[in-house]
Specification:
The chain has 2 domains: 273 residues, Up-down Bundle (Rhopdopsin 7-helix transmembrane proteins), CATH 1.20.1070; 37 residues. Helix 9 packs antiparallel against helix 10. It has 12 helices and no strands. With 357 residues, the protein is an all-alpha fold. Keywords: Cell membrane, G-protein coupled receptor, Glycoprotein, Membrane, Receptor, Transducer, Transmembrane, Transmembrane helix. This is G-protein coupled receptors family 1 profile domain-containing protein. Pfam families: 7tm_1. InterPro entries: GPCR_Rhodpsn, GPCR_Rhodpsn_7TM.
């Protein structure tokens, strides 16, 4: 008698996923199994890409001093560490669990693997959330406390210490998972709410400050240095706002699913199984998107990626390659801006003409 094998009609207490959805997929649940196969294939394709892109982001910040001159890039590299762990650890684990669900039976080994996958997923998701709160806080300090920020309030060492504390805090928050699952869910939901409130508050404050500075630039004469600093801060704000928006978009399904599964009696097992695995995979997809956002929004990252991939130490050559690759897009953007300015000048001329008549 094999003690590691459990009856499919009996769900061991360790099988948290099966307890949540109410059972295991049957062979007749064709549609749900097809969705699970699609999720497996997607994770197999995206997992190495997630690891590669985030590794590039980390190496770029580590080896290119010009990137480390911007403190926000250091935190983005720390965020890339969590995203790298998602691609190397969590996505392969989720893929294995999904494959076993498709072809295997309920065993205690599978149940333990489910627990490990759940822990690592939640642990890394919370770590990403804390790092995003740190990025938001760094932008708040850079915008609202300019002089203190410029005089060494935020340093590379302090940011790395804060990143280490973020990992420690995420680990501490998961201690209740091994004590009582209901306590873990309660504390985790409270933590997520507080983190989102901090992120939102920081970005609203930064947005208002950017708007205020923009009005100042349009009504008063300022130095070219102040103008360039404002443009740089505005660009970084747009970057972090994009990262936050994408994160909220990717995290929304799992948040809704957590609430919906409380009324799981209203849905069949195959529906619960499908939405749970889809929402978890969609959350992990955020780790694949983050380095793409860096490359799209920050030219210095694009140049650094070209240097690393092409193995060139010539910065001018890498910048030339970047210009050639993105010249068409940039040219279109310039043409659009020129056309918009021409239309504005035309409208102003029309208004003056109407007043004169």
């Amino acid at each position: 008698m094999n003690s590691s094998r459990a009856d499919n009609n009996f769900i061991p207490p360790e099988c948290s996923v099966y307890k949540t959805v109410g059972g295991k997929l049957s062979d007749s649940d064709t549609q749900a199994r097809n969705v699970l196969i699609f999720i497996v294939i997607t994770n197999i394709v995206i997992s190495p890409l997630t690891a590669t892109f985030n590794m590039l982001s980390m190496i770029a910040v580590k080896t290119k001093r010009r990137l480390r001159e911007h403190k926000s890039n250091i935190l983005l590299a720390c965020l890339a560490v969590t995203d790298l762990a998602v691609g190397v650890i969590v996505q392969p684990m989720l893929t294995v669990v999904s494959i076993i669900d498709l072809v295997g039976e309920i065993t205690r080994e599978l149940c333990l693997l489910q627990i490990c996958t759940q822990f690592m997923t939640s642990f890394l998701v919370n770590s990403s959330l804390i790092h995003l709160a740190l990025v938001s806080g760094e932008r708040y300090l850079a915008t609202k406390h300019v002089y203190a920020y410029a005089n060494g309030l935020v340093t590379e060492v302090r940011l790395l210490v804060a990143s280490g504390l973020a990992w420690l805090l995420s680990l501490i928050l998961h201690i209740p998972l091994f004590v009582k699952i209901s306590v873990f869910y309660a504390t985790n939901n409270i933590f997520i709410g507080i983190s989102l409130a901090i992120i939102t508050s920081c970005h609203v404050t930064v947005y208002r400050e950017v708007r205020r500075q923009q009005k100042t630039l349009s009504t008063q004469q300022v130095t070219e240095e102040a103008r360039q600093k404002f443009l740089k801060d505005k660009k970084v704000f747009k970057l972090t706002a994009t990262i936050v928006a994408v994160l909220l978009f990717c995290y929304l399904p799992i948040t809704v699913v957590r609430i919906v599964l409380n009324w799981s009696g209203l849905m069949s097992i195959k529906v619960r199984f499908t939405i749970l695995f889809f929402s978890v995979s969609f959350t992990l997809f955020n780790s694949f998107l983050n380095p793409l956002i860096y490359a799209i929004r920050i030219r210095q990252f694009r140049v650094a990626f070209i240097e690393l991939l092409c193995r060139t130490t010539n910065l001018a050559e890498a910048e030339e390659m970047e210009r050639n690759m993105f010249r068409r897009r940039n040219a279109v953007a310039v043409m659009d801006r020129g056309q918009k300015q021409e239309e504005e000048h035309h409208d102003e001329g029309q208004q003056i003409s109407n007043l004169s008549t």
